[in-house]
Amino acid sequence: MSAGPSAAPGSTAAALRHVLGHFVTPLLMCIGMGLAYLGAFHAPEPHDLRVDVVGSGPSAQVLAQTLQDKSDGALSVRTVPDRAAAVDHLKTQASYGAYLPGKHPELLVAGASSDTTATVVEKVFTKVAAGQGDPLKVTDTAPTADGDPTGQGIFFLLVAVSIGSYASVAVIGGAGAVLALRIRAALAVAASLVVSVIGVAFAGPVFSLVDHGLGGLWAMAWLYSAGILLIGVGLHTFLKRWTTLSLMVLFVMLNFTSSGGIFRPELQSGFFASLHSFWNGAGFVEGVRSHVYFGGHALGGHVLVLALWFVAGMALIGLAGLAESKRRRAAVETAADAGAVAGSAEAGGAHGPGHAARTGAGARTEAGDAQEIEEELEETVGV
Known about the structure:
This protein is an alpha/beta fold. About 70% of the residues lie in helices and about 5% in strands. Strands 2-1-3-4-5 form a 5-stranded mixed β-sheet, sandwiched between helices.
């Protein structure tokens, strides 16, 4: 009995080249994630971290200046006249700790601003109080909800909404590639509504990450998700199967690391700290914090950031529409030229071979498109 047929050497080599070519994407993801996450999180150190010393006498001034000098740029220490002023600074995120010296020293923090920042401040002033031989009392003036004791639940909500958004782009751009752009854009808006509702369910009834303000949280989640989806659908027209990698760079590698959900910019390097001021993930995280814990202070600026990313998505959809319209006109002109050539060939008796060649080319094109869609969806799932 003869063995089954083996693959031809040429086809095996071609398949191997195809597989090796697709290793480019996961390797780039590996490099990008390593550079982004390790660059942003591996060694957080404070720089110009604003803290207050409560008091107006000479002793408070000397303590503030001593801390400033010894911190070597890690802290920005100022004095405030009384406890009320210190609490106001904490609740407007003008400072991240306030030390009340005396026989019973107390440290005021705002845990909802950032648990990691509050921890850094507590370590600094625990040493100060210990140097004076007194135990330190820590008071949280803005505690997080019971369902989010570390204050990082909003960040992981950001992760869930982001992944739901950019993974939906691959479905719309891949499986829905044959649809008109206006339909793909409508699907993007619809998908963002679904993703944002799922996010609100996680934040409220499922995990109780927040105990009020779900309506505003939903609005920001929708605006954030819609911005990602519209940007992704617009980019897909130009980048095709590289869209997923591009969205990972924009909305994972640079986005999660600069959002302030784990470390605020005062604990990060200059690059990620600078992104925090205008990246959409930071707009969402800080917007939700402002809305839920700080009475809406500076909320307008964070919503503006989300709105500008949404507008950027709409602009990309517009550019994609122009590009696709131009491609359609070019395709129509090419088809008209091909029809004229085919008519001439048929008149010369060459209809059979010409028709077969065109049919074969069309079949190969359709097969190639289907393979590209499948590969794009697989890469998204793999992420």
